[in-house]
Each structure stands twice: as C-alpha cells, then as structure tokens.
Amino acid sequence: MRITLVVDNLARNGFQQEHGLSILVESGKDAVLFDTGQTGGVLRDNLERVSVNPDSISAIVLSHGHYDHTGGLRQAMGLALNAKCYAHPFCFNAKYAKADGELRYTGIPPNATVSKKVVVYNKTPVGILHGVVISGEIPIRKPVDIAQSRFVVEGDSGLKPDDFVDEQCLIVRGNSGVAVLLGCAHRGVENNLLAAMEIAGTEHIKLVVGGLHLGHADDERLKAVADFFGCCRHRDNRLLSLHRRSGNTLPRESVAKQDHSSPSR
C-alpha cells in the first residue's frame, strides 16, 4: 500500500502547486485518486512526474463538493478512462461562500462535471479496493461549528447553511495500521476520525493525511483536537497537515510528526 500526495497548496522539487488537494492510494496494481485538485493541469503534470499510469486508477473519490477538491474531475476521468467517480449525492449541489456581503460560487466548476453514468453515489461505507473504504456520511458525535456561517448550499427552498453532509473520508488499511485521508474535515476532525475508526474496527490510527480546516480555530479548539489525537494515537503515528492557506495548526506535541509536504512518493 502506498500513499502519494499529488496536489497541494505547497510544492517543491519541480512539482506544481495550487490551492487544492489530491492524493493517490496504490494497492497492488490498482489505485484510487482521492480528490482532484482545483485544475486538471496540475493534477496531470504531477501524476506524470511521479510516473503513475492513469490506467491503474480504478476509482476517483470526491471528499466533498468544493471546487478546490473537484476542479480536476473531468480531466482526471479523461486520464483514467476505466475509473468510476464515487461521491455523495449532494456533492454536486451548488455551493457558495459569503464574503464582504457577496456570494462566491465554490461548488464543482461547470467545466469539471462528468456524465452521471460514471458516478457511483453513496451515503454509506463502500469498499473500492482491498483495504480501501469510503466512509459514507460522517455522523456528528462531537460538537463542531459545521455550518461555519460563511458557507451556504442550494437547498429545496433556496440557500441554507452548508452542513457538509456530502463530506466523506477515505480509510486505508495497510500492514502497519490504518490511515485516514481527509479532504477538509468541515464536519470536524474528530467526527471524521471517529467514523473512520468505527468502520476500520480500531481505536488507533497510524496516519492522518489531509486538510484539517483549523486555520481560524482559537486555542480552545486547537487544544480539543490535540487532546482527541492524544486519545487515538498509535505508536509512531503521523499527521500530515495539508491544503493550508495560512493560520493555525495543531500544537507540535499533539502528534509524532507534522509535515507540509510537497507531492512525493
């Protein structure tokens, strides 16, 4: 089992970067792409740089319906011709962010949408490769401000606060333990990891990779997340905090290692 960061906000060693996220999970001869970044160009170029054969990608999983995780979807499906796209049914709903009294569209870009024939909609856990499972909907067990008032979504009666019911994480079980891939953790880091641990049947996580959405968190919130990590940590565990614009992250002592990694093997 191998996990490769393909697209992130930061890059080095000749890789391209953009505000977005995409992670490749390889299991034997097959692979899963978790999110597609903001643009297909960066995704394509970085996949070429790590010498990944697109034909090996049998599934493309969308963590949620924001543009910086889905913007490369059409190009990814064009590269991985045999792949299916896995997403929550609400992932394709129109999403917006409020800023300075205006609404900015933040959903899947129109030029990134694909035919419904290649999309598998799921609300519950789905195994897509040996040892690789999509979480389905993330239950809210720990209180968190999931609405985050600036995010709204198109509902039956117009715009409403986005509760990110479309959010999913990816659970990967390897020989050394369980890894969890997060898109943005809008529904809370703790809730994502609790769902993942329940699905994996474990109380310990070896690796957490992805966006934590803690950039504007206060000290109390950061401490709560750090304390939670302390309860579910695994010996020699790792936290790779990715997809960050700026702002806060977890205290270093809460995990064994932190790394704002560039795309790499």
Could you give the topology of this structure?
Layout: E1 2-7, E2 22-27, E3 30-34, H1 40-49, E4 57-61, H2 67-70, H3 73-79, E5 84-87, E6 95-99, E7 102-105, E8 119-121, E9 126-129, E10 132-134, E11 151-155, E12 158-161, E13 170-174, E14 177-182, H4 189-200, E15 205-210, H5 219-232, E16 233-241
Parallel strand pairs: 3-4, 4-5, 5-8, 14-15, 15-16
Antiparallel strand pairs: 1-2, 2-3, 6-7, 6-11, 9-10, 10-13, 11-12, 13-14
Record field, number of beta strands? 16
* Helix and strand run: EEEHEHHEEEEEEEEEEHEHE
The number of helices is 5
Mean pLDDT: 86
Q: Could you list the spans in which at least 5 consecutive residues all have pLDDT below 50?
A: 246-265
State the CATH class.
Alpha Beta
What is the first-to-last residue Cα distance?
A: 11 Å
CATH H-tier superfamily = Ribonuclease Z/Hydroxyacylglutathione hydrolase-like
What is CATH's topology name?
Metallo-beta-lactamase, Chain A
Q: What is the rounded Rg?
A: 17 Å
Strand order of the largest sheet: 1-2-3-4-5-8
Q: Biggest β-sheet: count, sense, barrel?
A: 6 strands, mixed
